[in-house]
């Protein structure tokens, strides 16, 4: 009886406020997501703080950050909300043709640039009222972003997935070497010439060592990384306008290389292929909308 009384005193409408603030890290953005005013979100947070006897979110230079207690609560609250949405959805089944929901995909830009155009074609054909958002997510960030419900589905190159997620292979890819048309390396793409060239790599943090450098080091070789850039699409533009060469996923070269005037070549050294996996939390799959979105990756044509 006591538990029933305590639950009756809890406003479950506050849980989406917690979810939105955790995901957005900003009260104003959380308010926009919930279609309420920032003051309403702040009021809801004050009630949540009283309910859980914890500050939950602390002010930071660009918004708010969760406390340890908030992080402990995150999975349980997400589970409650997912199950509640599933139950409510049983009364009105999810219909992609009529739904006005917004879904968020998380992926590195090289994957998104190949996958999203085909995925959007399916969404626009079958669900014209649904909005899509793309969030730049690297492999190391994917599980945290999914746990925080910042994204609905991640697509990343990864081999092992924790048991709390479902996953499937979307497509396989491999690396090629890319250079501008007319580049002298294309006439003699040997390993010796490869090491003599100046290279550009993707490194958001500015690190100058990548997977290729480990392969070269195993052969007693090295190369000069003359430039780092934060994204693959920027890399395409840099290679198109300079004598720098790069190792890029073949799928990205096939999709966008021609418009940049680039030539793809098989590498003069062994490079592993890799699998791209679509990943979603198992608890989120209780949501018929997320289940539908995840199913699109069977037919996205990428």
From TrEMBL:
Q: Where is the HTH lysR-type domain?
A: 10-67
The family note in this entry says: Belongs to the LysR transcriptional regulatory family.
Name the record gives this protein: LysR family transcriptional regulator
What PANTHER family does the entry give? HTH-TYPE TRANSCRIPTIONAL REGULATOR LEUO-RELATED (PTHR30118), TRANSCRIPTIONAL REGULATORY PROTEIN (PTHR30118:SF15)
What does the protein in this record do? NodD regulates the expression of the nodABCFE genes which encode other nodulation proteins. NodD is also a negative regulator of its own expression. Binds flavonoids as inducers.
Fetch the InterPro entries from UniProt.
LysR-type_TF, LysR_HTH_N, LysR_subst-bd, WH-like_DNA-bd_sf, WH_DNA-bd_sf, YidZ_PBP2
User: Gene3D superfamilies, from UniProt?
Assistant: Periplasmic binding protein-like II, Winged helix-like DNA-binding domain superfamily/Winged helix DNA-binding domain
Give the domain of life: Bacteria
Q: Which Pfam families match?
A: HTH_1, LysR_substrate
Keyword entries, A-Z? DNA-binding, Nodulation, Transcription, Transcription regulation
GO MF annotations for this entry?
A: DNA binding; DNA-binding transcription factor activity
